[in-house]
Amino acid sequence: MSPGSARVEGYFDLDPIVARLSTIRRNWRSVQAHHGEYGEDSFPSRGDLGKIMGALCGALFPLRLGPAFVRLHNEDAFVAQTLQTALSRLYGQIRLELIYAASDISHSAIDSQAAQIIADFAQALPDLRLLLDTDVEAAFLGDPAARSVDEVLICYPSMLAIIHHRLAHHLHGLGAPLVARIISELAHGKTGIDIHPGARIGEGFFIDHGTGVVIGETAIVGKRVRLYQGVTLGARSLRLGTDGVTGRGERRHPVIEDDVVIYAGATILGRITIGQGSEIGGNVWLTSSVPPGSRITQAHVENRVTAIRMNGRQAPAASVTAAVPGPKDQPPG
Description:
single chain; alpha/beta; 6-stranded parallel sheet; 5-stranded parallel sheet; 17 strands; 11% strand
């Protein structure tokens, strides 16, 4: 036997590997069946949804996010043709999700439900465009480095994430949570900004820089809120039960009221409320509500944190500005 044929037998005899992988998949599906895994054959496509989102971004902002041939004289025709194609393809992806999520419903009923979702989504696009305009303007007004709203739209990763979120959030509410989640993850992969499509975010939202921002499923963000990189609006650790973590579906993420600024690296956990007009400093760890007008920075020592928490009650509006302990604050060695 030649060395070449021995190498083929040694490295590419795949039948036993394929058989083992098949057994592992069957065992996994059998064990996980009670978790409601989606269907066996097809699945909404991340690749197809990426193309659909590219088309929808172009239809919403044709002169900036559309192809180079689009001009004022042909943008309406471009938008009409693009929406016709993109919405038809989105219908197909939503139909796949509905089939898998409810296998006991007839295909005609699923067709009708998918068509209704697409019709409602299409009708919402003008209002979503108006909402996105407030986000672009907030970024321009909030960042002195921005020279124009066009620069914001084309260059800022937060705008890509917010566009995806606005569309995904609407689809999530219409009954296509899996497609919505894939759309959100497309933006997450490109920008490092992780916004769950269930999160509710008001107008004039701006994320400066953006990398590492996390906004959880049940978070509520008010109007004119500004976040910086590395901010987490997350949940406290949940107990692990036999079916995974407890508390699925509970409201476990923060409520951020209007006109709040949260600086880089801040971590805000649990169903707490950050009052209107508050300012949360960088690298703050916050698990208790603060009232409107608060200014919270890193606590000096642990008893300051305890004072802020006030034995589990909401602290009064205050300015807590003590620095992180430096060398002179440390006990002698």
